Structures are given as C-alpha cells and as structure tokens.
Amino acid sequence: MNIQALQSLLDGILMGGVYALAALGLSLIFGVLKITNFAHGAMMTVGMYVVYALASGMGISPYLALPAAMVLMFLMGFLIQRFPIHYIEKAPAHNQLLLTLGVAYILENTLLLVFTPNYQTLTVSGFDKALRVGGLTFAPAKLIAFCVVIVVTGCVYFLLYRTHTGNSIRASAQNDTGARLMGINVRNIRAAAFGIGAVCTGIAGGLLTPIMSIYPTLGESFQLKCFVIAVLGGMGNLWGALISGLIIGVIESLSGYYLGGSWSDMLIYGVFILILFVRPTGLFGKVNRREN
Q1: pLDDT, position 290
Q2: R_g over Cα of the chain
Q3: Per the confidence metrics, is the pTM higher than 0.70?
Q4: How far is 27 from 229, CA to CA, in rounded Å?
C-alpha cells in the first residue's frame, strides 16, 4: 500500500469516528425507545450551529463551546421526547416516522430563518496547519475529533452500565412495565435517553464544524449514513456503532481514492446490503434462534 493509500486509510479512520458518534446517538434512541428518529440529521446540524454561534459570537474555541452545546442539545432532546414523541410511542411506526420527519423540517427551517441558507465556515486559530509524521499528514481538527469520540463513547458506556441512571435506562428498554413496578419514572428516563442520544449527535456535529462548511440542511447528507452505521453495528450496540463507523469511514475514503468520489456511496450501500444478507441483525447484533 503506497503512502497516498495509507493517507486515505488514516482519513477514513478519523472521519469514521465522527460518523460513529453520530450513529451512536441514533442507536441509543432506537435501543431504548424503539423509535426510528428521522430528525437525527437535523439535530446534528443544530449541534453544528450551536457550536458555530457560540464560537464565533464569543470568540472562543469551538472545543470550549462543546459543553454548552451539550447542555442545550440534552434539553432539546429531552423536551422533544417528553412532549410530542411521548404521545405517539404506542402509535403505528409510520406515525412515529412522520412525527420525527416533521420535527426535522421544523428544525431545518428554523436554522434557515436564523442563519440564512449561506454556507458558514469556522476557522480555528492554531489548527490550520497539518501535522506531518513521516509521509502522513494529520489534520489537527480530525485528530481531536477522533480522540473526543473515543472519550465520549467510553463515557456513554460507563453511564449506561455503571450508574443507577444507566440501569434504569436499560431496564426501561427491556421491560417498561417491570421498570415502573420497580419505582422507575419511565417517562423521564426515556426522555433522558433521548436527550443523551441528542448530546452524542450534537457533539458529532460540533466536532465537524471546524472541518467543513455548514448550512442548514447539511444533516440530510449524514442521515442515511448514520442509519447504515447503526444497523450495521446492531441497533442499540454502542461499540458496534463505533466499529461500524470506522468501517464505513474507511470504505468511503479508500473507495474515493481508488475508484473516485462518485463510487463511495454506491460501494458503502452495496457492502451494507451484502452484509445484511449474511447478518440481518448487523455485524454485532444478537441473532434470535428459534428452539424446536
């Protein structure tokens, strides 16, 4: 493998981490609420614009703006689930889909009104020069984003499997009736889970702000890719989403290098379909076996 191919592999791994974090939020929401969130891409864009507005308005680094963005994204996710989504949880799947799609359009059009459709770019002082190690080039913003992704994924895992709140979230996902009998406020816990998913999505969007130009409908380009990663990793599987995100990032980058950018999406979805033929539950999903 030549140096250019190695560079493409590196870029794919770094970007794949950000994809994985965005898909992690989607996977968490589905794993707990069993709702396919079509507002996911729009929520990711909101995270981008929150970081952009705070960083450009206050003159601070976008990485320092991330904690404030996390709080705002959690509140937004909590309220979206607590009110509109809560009332259609038992409704047919197409009703849930249409509601989340409506939320997506509301968020996108709000961003259009506030920020206009113009492209916005955020330059981070001190991070505009690439780091070179041997023949490889490391974009500082991508390297920081990848490190943040690993830390956030570890924190979400700790929250879900090592805390009382996490136990309540998993109990509600498995059996909400049993969780209520144990004294768990299922309604608030499910809203909190949606809020945590929104935080993951918002962080992913915020990490992309120094890397690419943003515009109000940018999230639509990530929506389907996040679904592919979440399903490929096994819906509700945290580490599965991370590994699948890296796989998709590498496929996208290497296919772009060897075959050209127009082949990337076709190859991603082609590999996705082939894997689902072999593993319908995804690479890391549980296979339900029937006992005779």
Answers
A1: 41
A2: 19
A3: yes
A4: 9
The residues, any chain, with a CB within 8 Å of residue 40's CB and separated by 6 or more, are: 22, 25, 26, 29, 104, 201, 219, 223, 226, 227
The sign of the dihedral angle between the CA atoms of 119, 120, 126, 132 is negative
Cα–Cα nearest to 20, from 150, 110, 175, 161: 150
pLDDT at 231 over 50: yes
Q: Look at the block and give the residue holding tokens 């979440």.
A: 230
pLDDT at 168 over 90: yes
The span from the CA of 150 to the CA of 251, in Å, is: 20
- What is the Cα–Cα distance from 104 to 283, expressed in whole angstroms? 29
Q: At 286, is the pLDDT very low, low, confident or very high (cuts 50, 70, 90)? A: low
What's residue 1's pLDDT? Answer: 64
Whether the pLDDT of residue 59 is over 90: the answer is no
Q: CB within 8 A of 233, min separation 6: which ones? A: 23, 27, 239, 240, 241, 242, 243, 244, 245, 282, 283, 284, 285
